[in-house]
Fold this sequence. Notes:
This protein has 155 residues and is α/β, with parallel strands linked by helices. The protein has helices spanning 21-33, 75-79, 97-102, 106-115, 122-128; strands spanning 11-15, 49-53, 81-85, 92-96, 131-133, 147-148. The chain has a domain at 11-62 and 103-149: CATH 3.90.1180.10. Helices cover 26% and strands 16% of the residues. A 4-stranded parallel sheet has the order 5-2-1-6, covered by helices on one side.
Amino acid sequence: MANAKTVDPEWFVVDADNMIVGRLATKIATVLMGKHKPTYTAHVDTGGYVVVVNCDKIKFTGKELAHDSHPYFSRKMQEKSYAKYSGYPSGLKNVTAEQKLERGQATQVLSEAVRRMLPKNKLGRQMLKKLKLYSGPTHDHQAQQPQEWPEYLLP
């Protein structure tokens, strides 16, 4: 069994251009939890770090529609909603994926998808901190010498 002292985390880079949100999120969650390794242990954070670039070019499944700013716009982007509650009476606010992408919050779309696939405890929150999301094609983690996303983990 693995423990925190024996785990050596790896760094991976994945380009999210033209990838479907849910399918990419499952693969990212698998790497963050460490389920792709033979030394996976459920109560230990055995996963690696994941750097995702081009988060603003992700896509949803569904019928493609014309859009002036997003190249992979689909009907599901209009229908997918994210709810948050302010804590006040009638404080429920719904925002669609289309609105998040127009506001420049494309990283939040992928982050929410991955967060919902991780364990709902302290360990899951620790795993989510190892996810680094960037809207553009560059990232700040060259010093960690990240590897390219392995072929067997592609969605």
